[in-house]
């Protein structure tokens, strides 16, 4: 079951956030956190691969083009809150596994 999560991100000037945003209305897909870098500010804040970006500082971005969503994040500055949807199929599929499956021999 999916649910909304609010995350606060904060950084010093010019530090990378450490996540990759994918999608937008111009791609016909939701705004998806495709990747979160290990030991990044985003990972420390709790962001996860597969999270769907819903809002930045309370501003709905679900119907934004990719560049519009990026610009909204940039304009938010170095301290902001994002709202993501978590727990859906994409979140489970993109979450890194700590264990590598061992192939079974016939």
Give the gist of this structure.
The protein is of the alpha+beta class and 106 residues long. It contains 3 helices and 6 strands, in the order E-E-E-H-E-E-H-E-H. The chain has a 4-stranded antiparallel sheet. The chain has a two-stranded antiparallel ribbon with strand order 2-3.
How would you portray this structure in words?
- By secondary structure, the chain is of the alpha+beta class.
- It contains three helices and six strands; from the N terminus they run βββαββαβα.
- The strands form two sheets. Strands 1-6-4-5 form a four-stranded antiparallel beta sheet. The chain has a two-stranded antiparallel ribbon with strand order 2-3.
- The longest helix has 10 residues, at 66-75.
- The termini are far apart.
Structural class: alpha+beta
Helix content: 10-25%
Helix/strand order, N-terminal first: EEEHEEHEH
Distance between the ends? 36 Å
Instruction: Give the strand line-up of the largest sheet.
Output: 1-6-4-5
Which band does the percent of strand residues land in? 25-35%
**Cα-based radius of gyration, to the nearest Å:** 15 Å
Instruction: Give average pLDDT, whole number.
Output: 89
Count of individual beta strands = 6
Report low-confidence residues grouped into runs of 5 or more: 98-102
Q: Give the overall form.
A: globular
Main sheet summary: 4 strands, antiparallel
Q: How many helical stretches?
A: 3
Q: Secondary-structure blueprint of this entry?
A:
Elements: E1 3-10, E2 19-24, E3 29-36, H1 41-45, E4 52-56, E5 59-60, H2 66-75, E6 79-86, H3 89-94
Antiparallel strand pairs: 1-6, 2-3, 4-5, 4-6
